[in-house]
Specification:
Blueprint: H1 2-26, H2 43-72, H3 97-103, H4 105-108, E1 112-116, H5 123-136, E2 141-145, H6 146-158, H7 162-171, E3 174-178, H8 187-202, E4 206-211, H9 215-219, H10 225-236, E5 239-243, H11 250-258
Parallel strand pairs: 1-4, 1-5, 2-3, 3-4
């Protein structure tokens, strides 16, 4: 019996030591990731050390996430538990597309995401959740509205910093462009915007866009027809497409509930949209 207890204690210590070395490895403290350092130490000390390291690493990862979130341009983290839906919420969405988008694995696969639908249906919430997941996974993210991009391209041009601005748009692993159909580009801004998207395409970088209107009609307004066609091709190639048309305006529904205004229809889960 004593021998069994000793073997069990040894196994427990070995497991904790392995956990300690893995924590130090993840923190890039390779000198301390040597199991021999901790061999023979009392189990309570080893256990407390492992827990302390786990807490420290968790705090470090949270701090890194917050810094990356600020860099991305996202004001607040959004998590998947705020996106509540069922098969009836988005009647026109192709089966499996929302799940694929929420998984955020398309960023690693260097694919694009296109989310279309009227205002208030959850497009922004979905892409923000995806962006936050990508940041947690260690990817660099930039989150902008298309209007901001159009304005910033013109400002960068006038300030002789256009090349640097385009490089920033090109470099991030995931570029999120909100409300793409709301942007109006002049000839120079359109060319710069196409250059940024083209370079992302060449480098197999992921781009996520949301659209309230028809993307084809928006692209047709570009000064150059060939540029318009090429831009659409770069967006659509190997893209996950989430069609939110036919869904309720959840912001309007929430407002009606606040003022006790009856709503038509119902059923299924609601979508929590924190605007």
């Amino acid at each position: 019996m004593l021998l069994l207890k000793q073997e069990s204690a040894a196994d427990d210590s070995a497991a904790v030591i392995e956990g300690i070395t893995k924590q130090f490895q993840a923190m890039n403290l390779t000198r301390l990731a040597d199991a021999r350092i901790y061999s023979g130490a009392p189990f309570p000390i080893l256990d407390n050390l492992q827990k302390a390291l786990a807490e420290q690493r968790s705090a470090d990862e949270k701090k890194k996430f917050i810094n990356r979130l600020k860099y991305s341009g996202i004001a607040k983290e959004r998590t998947e538990d705020t996106f509540l839906w069922d098969d009836n919420t988005y009647p026109l969405a192709e089966p499996g597309m929302i799940e694929r988008a929420l998984d955020a694995g398309f960023v690693k696969l260097r694919q694009n995401l296109i989310v279309t639908g009227p205002p208030g249906t959850g497009k922004s919430l979905l892409v923000t959740i995806v962006a936050c997941k990508a940041i947690w996974a260690g990817f660099s993210v930039k989150y902008k509205t298309s209007h901001d991009i159009a304005v910033e391209l013109r400002e960068a041009k006038s300030g002789n910093s256009l090349s640097g601005y385009i490089k920033k748009l090109q470099a991030c692993d995931l570029l999120v462009i909100e409300d793409i159909t709301f942007a109006t580009f002049d000839a120079r801004a359109a060319q710069s915007f196409f250059s940024a998207i083209d370079k992302r395409y060449e480098r197999s970088k992921s781009t996520a866009i949301t659209s309230n209107g028809n993307i084809n009609e928006w692209a047709a307004k570009f000064p150059d027809e060939r540029m318009s066609s090429a831009l659409l091709g770069r967006f659509y190639e190997e893209a996950i497409r989430v069609n939110m048309n036919g869904a309720e305006d959840f912001r309007l529904k929430k407002a009606k509930r606040m003022f006790d205004i009856p709503t038509v229809g119902g059923g299924g889960k609601s979508l929590v949209v924190n605007a």
